Amino acid sequence: MIEWRENHDSYLPLQAGSAQLTDFVLQNGEHLDVFLRKTKLFQNDLQRPDVTLSAMQLAQLYRNTRAMTTHPDLALRLGQQLLPSSLVQYSAGLMYAPDVARALGFLEHTQALWSPLVHITSLTSAGHLHWYFSDAQGVLLDAYERNTLFVATMEALRSALCWFGQGIDGRQWRYELNSLSPALNSECQSHWLLGDVQHAAFACLTIPKAKLTQPFIHASDSLYQMTCQQIGSAPASFLGTIQSYLLEQVTDMPSLQQMADRLAMSPATLKRKLKAHRTSYQKQVDSVRALLSHHYAHVLGYSSEQIADTLCFYDVSNFRRAMKRWVIMT
Question: Which residue of 8, 108, 176, 200 is surrounded by the most CB atoms within 10 Å?
Fold first, then answer.
């Protein structure tokens, strides 16, 4: 039975972002009643360890924080505090991972816990690992919200690996984002010690494969394996579940009916759920194909003919027409 979390499901602990946002708001002398608008939360909820939030509530807290402050470093400050705290009882899987590769594997497996609003798609090239970021729950309304969460996720990864890894500083990583504001771009350049944050159609963090074998300072294979067994099959976001399966079936994309059958629901129910996540099945198929086309062309260096063949288009002209539609979409 496939498990997933939808954007209205209440399962996120306060450590998954709301506690960090609360501290930020209080440190800036803002009022919590403004911070909590449209969330159906009360101030005393922020101190209760049994309280959980939905992705929609968490996204609204980010939105409210944006309306209350103009600090361009919000995303970076948030990212520095997400890991390992957002993993709560499963934090040992990150802290005691044997090396970078298995730490990243654990974080990819548990992304719905520590990165509930951002879905991560992992692809590779000859010498690098590429993590692409997208909206996991259909709750990020504009480029500002997407970039804030994408930067926070990148910084969470960078901070965690630098803290727990040996000799890791993130300087050889490549950070790519789309339509980053000048203020946030400047903050990222300064913090990540970059000449510039690269502009790309898709947000992506690229890590050299040579760094994946670097050991962690407190490596413990026993503690790592024990935590992996405890967490078992971690549920993913609803859109993440769909995108992961589409990625597996890219050479023979399933129909709406086939996807509904896999998720054990009727096509009408699947359409309704997708609409509640501000998307459609065709948009999900297009987003996966667009991402792979970008990766094949700009990372692997495929020609249009090779991409069209890999993605099973009838001919190159059909693929190029689809690409124009995807460019508008992204």
Answer: 176
Angle at 156 between CA 36 and CA 66, to 5 degrees: 30
CB atoms near residue 24 (< 10 Å): 19
Tens-place pLDDT, residues 35-48: 999 999 999 999 89
* 212 and 122 Cβ atoms separated by less than 8 Å: no
Stretch 14-36: mean pLDDT: 92
Count of residues for the chain?
Answer: 330
Structure tokens of 41? 């939360």
On whether the CB atoms of residues 124 and 194 are closer than 8 A, the answer is no
Decide: 273 and 6 in contact? Cβ < 8 Å.
yes
What per-residue confidence (pLDDT) applies to 327?
Answer: 62
Vertex 298, ends 290 and 80: CA angle to 5°?
80
Q: What is the rounded average pLDDT for all residues in the chain?
A: 91
How many CB atoms lie under 10 A from the CB of residue 254? 17
Tell me the CB-side half-sphere exposure of residue 6, using CA atoms within 13 A.
10
Handedness of CA 145, 146, 149, 152 (dihedral sign): negative
Q: Is 128 helix (H, G, I), strand (E, B) or coil?
A: strand
Q: How far apart are CA 139 and CA 124, in angstroms?
A: 28
DSSP state letters, 48-92: -TT-EE-HHHHHHHHHHHHHH---TTHHHHHHHHHTTGGGGGGTH
Please state, as a whole number, how many other Cβ atoms lie within 10 Å of the Cβ of residue 322: 17
